[in-house]
Amino acid sequence: MNNPILHPEIQEYIIQNTGADITKLALQKNPFPEVDWILILNQIEARTKAKEKLPTWFATENIIYPSKISVEQTSSEKTASYKASLIAGESLIDLTGGYGVDDYYFSKKFKSITHCEINEELSAIVSNNFKKLQVENCVFHAGDSTHFLEETNQKFDWIYIDPSRRNDSKGKVFMLKDCLPNVPELLDFYFQKSDSILIKTAPLLDISAGLSELKNVKNIHIIALENEVKELLFEIHKGYTGEITLKTSNILKERIETFEFVLGSETISHSYGLPQQYLYEPNAAIMKSGGFDEVSSAFQINKLHKHSHLYTSDHLIDFPGRKFEVQKVISYNKNEMKNELANKQANITTRNFPETVENIRKKWKIKNGGNLYCFFTTDVKDNKIVLICTKII
């Protein structure tokens, strides 16, 4: 690829200035006047962003980066690696290839990958990068993926799609039909080319809204990274009409917290109770799933209130979320608050409580931080309470 950004002196300059203040750097004179200064600055800024998110790209020489926004929007290596662990086969076609992070990891699980990207410049960038990353089983198609599928006779083991929202859909309820490509509209066509489809969506998509637009859904994966939901994945199979399993994963530094349940199961048993010695707060992936009764049933622990989504037990259990030891439970009133928390330092969480964290801090002059964790919530008797806890690591 004959890109001036790859000139050795420019590459050295980009590496040396990674992490620099771009605002200050932009005021300096361009040391390479034959190349657009904005392009060089963008490479520096994007490479800085990639250090934590894309360490393999960061550590590889002669990588070309897209815009900083594209780096922010692409999958992280951690979520891409996890995603690739979910499926395997001979061939996969990515209809919305983008910067290719997902395909890099899919290439380790499939014999051949087809990367489709409508932006020709981005397609060329990814092709260059994959050579540097020593990926040899990926072919690139710069153009409309629907046209490519119409013209090819090949059938693929998997189709992977990451639809992007149309610009005119801002402010509207996020639906898959508002994205490009329009997956609900094209689904029957896609099934002519593959029996298995994996659709990645933004975490703000409502799960029930996704199900209302799709058919043949077998699994829904909710992927969180360090307790922040990053992706929803709808796994669909041609002709499938069975139960839908919701699988949650929270990727942490040293482990992955997983929890799964069958959507709409009628065998759920749950119970409510007053706070006991230990308190549990589900991770973000479980919170997104809405499987609150399923958590109570699976772990045989009491829920504090139907709408509080906090759990309690007398014996410490291994739980997919944060765990706390309850030091004290107080009623939320003036006297109790003055005696226990006013003018002190604590980490505050509210669950099913009428006041905001900001309002509580201001009202009782509680500083942020420290070793105390206070949950302002409502108990099974509809009383407003505060659980004063210490965190269990």
UniProtKB/TrEMBL annotation:
Coiled-coil regions listed: none
Gene3D superfamilies referenced in this protein's UniProt entry, alphabetically: Methyltransferase PG1098, N-terminal domain, Vaccinia Virus protein VP39
Pfam families (alphabetical): PG_1098_Fer (PF22013), Thump_like (PF18096)
Domain PG-1098 ferredoxin-like: 278-320
Residue span(s) of domain THUMP-like: 321-391
Residues in the signal sequence: none
Domain of life from the UniProt record: Bacteria
Protein's name in the database: THUMP-like domain-containing protein
Organism: Flavobacterium anhuiense
